[in-house]
Amino acid sequence: MEIQRQCQISYKSALFLMNRIRFAMAPDANAPKLMGIVECDETYIGPRRPRYKGTSKKGRGTSKQPVFVAVEPDGHLRRRVIADVTMATIGHGVREEVDRRAHLMTDEYTSYTRVGPEYAQHSVICHSTKEYARGPVHTNTAESTHALVKRGIVGIYHNISREYLHRYLWQYDFLWNNRQLNDGERTIAGIKGAEGKRLMYKQPTAEPEYTVSREQEESGEQLEPF
Predict the structure, then answer these.
(1) How does pLDDT run across 37-94, given as a tens digit for each residue?
(2) CA gap 85, 91 in Å, rounded
(3) How confident is the model over 109-168, as pLDDT tens digits?
(4) CB-based contact 84:57 (threshold 8 Å)
(5) Residue 104 domain flag
């Protein structure tokens, strides 16, 4: 709305402009996988309160959109919208974003304990027993990135639709990954990120969500949109 007022353009044009800027902030598909200590976690993004009482549960029973994140505590993060939190889908996300030589840190959810042995080291924190840190072992960095996204959405945008969610995540991930830069340096990085990218007005807004069956995972079959 502020861009609409300042630029004196229509709401649809302002929304398209912002989506083009967010598209420039999209992560590089050829970036190396995360290394060192990597925390993995998932969260659920959607309306703070259901329209009708009792129609939405908390945690993994919710109808909100699941989002997976892998983050180096002192480095970069990777976030993706996923269709579900099954072992196959979570495992695929971890393998896609994290190098096998990394030290994985997760909670005790079975989707992580299955993929954990494939990595150099896997440390588990047990949230179900109210254990949130054991020395250097925790997922607090991953959880804090979720909090920053949710507070930003509620405080600035109030709510966003699922079809645009991945673009807003690109925006917040860009800010996190460039948090050491000043405003001018981040602006230059965003402009450089637009090189070679073109978002057409009629282009579909939604990024495909991917779900993985156990058979697909074991056979190495190419993933299909959910």
Answers:
(1) 999 999 999 876 655 665 556 667 788 899 999 999 999 999 999 999 999 999 999 9
(2) 9
(3) 999 999 999 999 999 999 999 999 999 999 999 999 999 999 999 898 888 888 889 999
(4) no
(5) yes
pLDDT digit string, tens, across residues 27-36: 888 899 999 9
CB neighbour list of residue 6: distance below 8 Å, 6 or more residues apart: none
Residue 132's contacts (CB-CB under 8 Å, 6 or more residues apart) are 125, 138, 140
| Beta strands, E only, the chain | 37-45, 65-71, 77-81, 103-107, 121-125
Task: Please indicate, yes or no, if residue 222 is contained in any of the structural domains.
Answer: no
Count of positions (residues) in the chain: 226
Residue 105 structural domain: 2-213
pTM score = 0.82
Domain assignment present for 225:
no
Q: How many beta carbons lie within 10 A of that of residue 107, not counting itself? A: 22
Which pLDDT score, from 0 to 100, does residue 162 have?
Answer: 87
Alpha carbon of 209 to those of 66, 67, 81, 83, 151: distances in Å?
Answer: 10, 10, 6, 5, 24
Q: How many Cβ atoms from other residues are within 10 Å of residue 21's Cβ?
A: 19
Dihedral sign computed on CA atoms, order 45, 49, 51, 56? positive
Least Cα distance to 152 among 170, 166, 168 occurs for 168
Structural domain total, the chain: 1
Residue 218 counted as domain residue = no
Structure tokens at 113: 């304990």
